[in-house]
Amino acid sequence: MVNVSARLIGFPRIGPARELKWALERAWSGRMSVSEFNARVTELRQAHLDEQRELIGSAVDDYFLYDQVLETAMQLGLVPRELRGALADDPFGVLTILARGSSEREAWEMTKWFDTNYHYVVPEVVGAPERLVPLPWRTPLGGPDTAWAILGPFSFVKLSKLGTETEPRALAGATGRALWGFVREQLDRDPAFRLQVDEPCLGMALSADDAQLLDAAYADAKDLGLVEPALVTVQFGRPSSETVAALGRRGLAVQVPLERVDELSADGAWATQPEHVVSVMDGRSVWSDDFGVARERIEAIADDGMPLRLVPSTSFLFLPHTVEGEDLPPGFAFAREKAAALASWAAALAGGGSVDAPHPPAADWPEVGEIRPRVGREDRRAAQSDLDLPLFPTTSTGSLPQTSEVRQLRVRLTRGEIDRPAYEHEVDRMITEAVAWQEAAGIDVLVHGEFERTDMVEYFAEKLDGFHTTRSGWVLSYGSRCTRPPILAAPPVAAEPMTVREWRVAQAAAGRPVKGMLTGPVTIVNWSFRPPGVPDDRLFWAVAQPIAAEVGALVDAGARIVQVDEPAVRERWPLPTVDAEERRQVYARGVRAALNHVFHQPAAVQMHTHMCYGDFGDIVPLWADAGVDVASIEFSRSKDESYIHQFYELFDDGHLQIGPGVFDVHSPHSPGTETMASRLAHFSGFMDATDLWVNPDCGLKTRTWPEVERQLTDMVEAAREIRSAATAVRAE
Ligand code: GLN
Ligand code: ZN
Questions:
Q1: CATH number of 390-452+499-731
Q2: Which ligand 1 atom is at minimum distance from the Cα of 397?
Q3: Confidence class of residue 427 from pLDDT cuts 50, 70 and 90?
Q4: Is the four-CA dihedral 598, 602, 603, 606 of positive or negative sign?
Q5: Closest Cα to residue 466, out of 589, 552, 369, 364?
Q6: What is the DSSP string of 474-517?
């Protein structure tokens, strides 16, 4: 093959030991001065580029400090008027205010980045950009082997919130002009300047309006004069042939999936490309990719004399840094290993060397099972009536403060400084104290507090065969925050009950019901790395097996109330691409079957769930067969009650009981009894008194005890108020 090379389109910026996280957090807390921070960022950015060059011979400069969308808005000067002055003198200060808020203004909203667990900051755009000025930490560094990355004008407009005065097409045009103008200026300074334009929104199904937006954004992109055509990445979904051709004719090279080369060749889009950029590797999978399959396809591509660049399907931002130092079987690859593999693929195709990566054994994933209706809602209510709960029962979401004492305890256990019985003894003491506090505070349905859990998914993954967990497999979630997703390698099995011991300790100390507390199968799958090629429905179903068995074990132990959390049901809901419909059917089938399997419990057991992170949109109907009795749903943060209405009306055998969160757990403050009571009064306007529960928006693990005590005490008081108001009405 002639002229084949390999490129990256993004690399994890957080760093092998989360260096960027520590730098950001030190700068925010004032433990690092501005000049120290700037010097540290320069050093880390250099290391980020050097590491890529060492692995693959080139680099993409995607060293954004907080988020690419936010920093693109800032470079376009699109910040709120009162912050414009500070943009030049204190850009990091402006970034901090927009990302994290200040005492004067709220932060810009944050939302999920496509179907990942990364979150971007949503710019609120008023006016139009005039020019693009790189932030100091984004000034192009030059070097012929480095591409400078920026969010493209089409996606920028699609992902921002536009003020009422702002017309999308005009904004796209102005954003494009600012970007292309900057590129031309930059070329005067550095003729070897290379550009990568990230346009993830181009992979979704485009409307006629979108096509016009695209035209406006790229109208001025012709004849930029780059030595190498600008690379337009489309990391989610797939660009249409029209999109590829529209950009190709303007001299831009568009990333396309290897499987689509034939189709694009047939319809002529391929021939418009100034060079070919083909995704050949799964950028989000930790399984090593199959070179044999890719090779066959790549070698079948007719040589038209144009350079062929092999890239991963996405940035490696969604992978941990390296498998080195992890206790994983052979065949897994993180960012470093994947980058090195891609370089070796290009070398092998160019005629040098061979590639053989081991592959983890493929597992057998059983087909999804039947849906079995649970006993009807009215019969369940009757069977649960001996729980003897008051109207407007109070409860909390599950976790209570993860104090430094709890975290220290776990560190000491891992280091072998204390043994398991000593660890459990301390955890049990915390559980007992937490139960006593809740009872004294007058809470009706208690929780054990989840002190034994690091994370709601990792805890179960560690206990289940079939998952691998990592020591340092950190992946950026937002800003400086990372998670450590487990790897789902085979249908999981539990060797013994996972939550029963702690539940028993709590229930033994309580005179009121304690909820059994588990993470649901869909959330576990969606927050884990998944095996390649296995359909969603089989994954959900496989994980539902041990989770349903765990609910069974809690029920056998005597639990009358069990909560199964599903905050991430929506995360992998197939994106609105042209082939979404088919993939959504598989996803929906899997969610329905898995939820039904887990919630299908005896009538006397009250089954709860919890959902947060707003935007449930299309997934509400997927709960229709779940047989869930009570749901706590985030409300006070998103202030969006449309889901609450939808869930309330979802079932045809009566209403779901719902606890719309009455306070935001992200805030250290309590909104006060009055606000909570008025929220409840609002909901009792359309929900029966027997259907309305009282609880926070989410778990309280990031709060301190004094904060939680205030918040929950106010909440119990709010419930008492609405209870006495309701009894007064009934007596009339
Ligand atoms: N039960 C979990 C907790 O309270 C739920 C967390 C979540 O929804 N993210 O922490
Ligand atoms: Zn939650």
A1: 3.20.20.210
A2: 4
A3: very high
A4: negative
A5: 364
A6: -EEEETTEEE---EEEEEEEESS-SSHHHHHHHHHT-SS-B-EE
Ligand nearest to the CA of 399: 1
Residue % of the chain over a pLDDT of 90: 92
Q: For residue range 437-480, list pLDDT tens digits in order.
A: 999 999 999 999 999 999 999 999 999 999 999 999 999 999 99
Helical ranges in 600-668 per DSSP H: 642-648
How far apart, in whole angstroms, are the C-alpha atoms of residue 269 and residue 248? 8
pLDDT at position 105 is 86
Please provide the size of the chain in residues. 732
Reported as a single tens digit per residue, the pLDDT across 36-74 is 999 999 999 999 999 999 999 999 999 999 999 999 999
Annotation marks residue 597 as catalytic: no
Mutate to test the pocket of ligand 1, among 397, 611, 663, 708 (most ligand atoms within 8 A of CB): 397
* Closest-lying ligand 1 atom to the alpha carbon of residue 612: 8
Tens of pLDDT, residue by residue over 390-406, are 999 999 999 999 999 99
Sign of CA dihedral 643, 649, 652, 656: positive
Q: How far is the CA of 206 from the centre of ligand 1 (A)?
A: 36
Closest Cα partner for 665 from 616, 717, 704?
704
What is the token pair recorded at 417?
């400084």
* Average pLDDT over all residues of the chain: 96
Token code pair at residue 635: 């409300």
Q: Does 701 contact ligand 1 (Cβ within 6 A)?
A: yes
Which tens digits make up the pLDDT trace of 509-537?
999 999 999 999 999 999 999 999 999 99
Instruction: Report how far ligand 2's centroid is from the alpha carbon of 637 (Å).
Output: 11
Interval between CA 565 and ligand 1 midpoint (Å):
7
3-state secondary structure 677-729: HHHHHHHHCCCCHHHECECCCCCCCCCCHHHHHHHHHHHHHHHHHHHHHHHHH
Q: Are 75 and 67 in contact (CB under 8 A)?
A: no
pLDDT digits 0-9 by tens, 627-665: 999 999 998 877 888 999 999 999 999 999 999 999 999
CB 666 within 8 Å of CB 637: yes
pLDDT of residue 730: 67
Q: How far is the CA of 267 from the CAs of 99, 222, 230, 271, 491, in angstroms?
A: 44, 22, 23, 9, 42
- Whose CA is closest to atom 9 on ligand 1? 567
